[in-house]
Amino acid sequence: MIVAFSVTPLGVGEDVGEYVADAVRVVRESGLPNRTDAMFTSVEGEWDEVMDVVKRAVAAVEARAPRVSLVLKADIRPGVTNGLTTKVETVERHLAQQTE
């Protein structure tokens, strides 16, 4: 499964980068395949391990912020691995075919 999620601390002002970095650090230290972009962090693995990482990422922000917002989207597709890479490669392949 792939989970894309965003953890946002509330009540700490506009500059939230250091809080978000706490959450991303948890994801990166998990050892699971992951990517972070401007809006979300995606992590891939089995249900329990991915949800544990999300829970710990939220807890890392919650430890320093009075309130936390979590947005989560999941692609639950048993038997598929390396989806973080293959989904993007498929789109890129289609884009390349359109330019030829």
Question: What distinguishing features does this structure have?
Answer:
single chain, 100 residues, alpha+beta, four-stranded antiparallel sheet, 3 helices, 25% strand, globular, UPF0045_domain
Summary, kept brief:
With 100 residues, the chain is α+β, with helices and mostly antiparallel strands. It is 47% helix and 25% strand. It is built from 3 helices and 4 strands.
State the order of secondary-structure elements, H for helix, E for strand: EHEEHEH
Task: Describe the largest sheet.
Answer: 4 strands, antiparallel
Tally of extended strands? 4
| SSE-based structural type | alpha+beta
Strand order of the largest sheet: 2-3-1-4
User: How helical, in percent, are the residues?
Assistant: 40-55%
What separation lies between the terminal Cα atoms?
33 Å
| Cα-based radius of gyration, to the nearest Å | 15 Å
Low-pLDDT regions: none
Count of runs of 4 or more consecutive helical residues: 3
Sum up the overall morphology in one term. globular
Structure description:
It is a single chain. The chain has 100 residues and is of the alpha+beta class. It has three helices and four strands. Strands 2-3-1-4 form a four-stranded antiparallel sheet, with helices on one face. A hairpin with a 4-residue loop joins strand 2 (34-36) and strand 3. The longest helix is centred in the last third of the chain and has 17 residues, at 83-99. The chain is globular and about 50 Å long.
